[in-house]
Each structure stands twice: as structure tokens, then as C-alpha cells.
Predict the 3D structure of the following.
Amino acid sequence: MTEPTISQLQPMPGDWQRALAVVADPDDLEYGCAAAIAAWTDAGREVSYVLATRGEAGIDTLDPARCGPLREREQRASAAVVGVSEVAFLDHADGVIEYGPALRRDIAAAIRRHRPELVITLNHRDTWGGTAWNTPDHVAVGRATLDAAGDAGNRWIFPELTEQGLQPWDGVRWVAVVGSASPTHAVDATPGLERAVRSLLEHRTYIEALTDEDPETYARTLLTGFAEETGKRFGNRPAVAFEVFPR
């Protein structure tokens, strides 16, 4: 029986200079996206991170008061590996982020501050495809980011931001969702894959709490597998996939 034709992913738009990645927790960007970010920063593009939480509820054996600062340090080190120096935290509570105007306002403020052409976020849907359930924090932040990309350009939504000196920014051209079960575009992961592995390894405390497997073996096997699977739809090159929403 003939295998069905694999639909091909399109190359990501390349005519941009600034990107802002907005996700819920430390390590969200390291599980697949960091290879693309490394390639972009190598090309001289600016990428900044905004995280809604410090991931303080993410390790069962660590009290949140100790866990949050530790995971923040790991996230900053992880970002540096792929050429990202600006990492901000919105201080929403890990595990109980609420979708709504407050979250949209915080993200819209970040977009106005950074003025990106490309905004990146994580899967905003209920599942990762099929019955693999997503977390409420990912869903809330992903949806709020898609909405905030428009909010940031409307001076009559959250007018207090203008009063704070954050002028409207209507320059977001795309929102790219990583981890989507319905990707449309991809980036060649080859140049950044090794640094993506090292970037994920900076979250060593989290990885060691998650699995008994050797951390480097875990990170390399996972990220290489993701990239090679995506590459089947991108000219058989290891790749990072995105669902791109033009604005």
C-alpha cells in the first residue's frame, strides 16, 4: 500500500529583524524552538524572551520559594547559549495563569516595549494533537499572545499603557506558534541544533527531577528526534516547525 504524500512545510518568513518569544514557563522554548532561535541570532536578528511565570510550581521536591529563583537562573543561562540576552518575567503564578485582560495587557505591554515584527509563542490549543492534553498555562499564554499582538496596536485597548509611555505598536506581521499539531512553516535546525541541546541542558535541575535518564542523553535524543521528524516535511533537513498566523 502506498504511503500518503507528506505535505511539505514552507520556509519561515525571513524579512524581519526583531522577534519576541512569549511563553508560560522556563524551558518552554528549549523543547524544540531554541535551534531556530540560535540560527536567527547568528544571522544578526534580535530575539527577546518574556515568560509569564518563573516555573516555581514545576518541581515537586522543591518549595516554590526556592524553585522560582533557581529556574529563573537556569532560564537566563539557557537563553544566553542561543544568543538571547534579554529575558523578562511577568510574575504570574505558575500553574494557575488566567486568560483575560490582565494577561493580555501584560503581553501587549511587552510587545509595545520590544516592537517586534515576529512574535513567537507555544501551542495554545487544548491538546498537542490527539489526546495528549496541554496545560492550562500554555493554553492561556498562547491565546493571550495571539490576542495581544492585535491589542498592542490599538491605542484604545489598555490606554493606560500609552499613559505609561508605551506607544501603540502595530508592526507585528506574524505570530508563530511552536508545538502546534498543525504546522505550516519550518526553520532548518541544523546550524542551531547543538546549541539547542546545550540550551535545554541548562535546565538541569528540572530535567533531573523529570527523568532518571542521563540529562545529555535525554536532551539530545529528544531534540534530535523532534527535528528529524519535522524534517520529513522539510526536505529531509532537521527542522523546527511553526504554525504561522499572519497579521
About this structure: The beta strands are 10-11, 18-23, 46-51, 87-89, 118-122, 174-178, 185-188, 239-246. Residues 1-5 have pLDDT under 50 and may be disordered. The two ends are 41 Å apart (CA to CA).
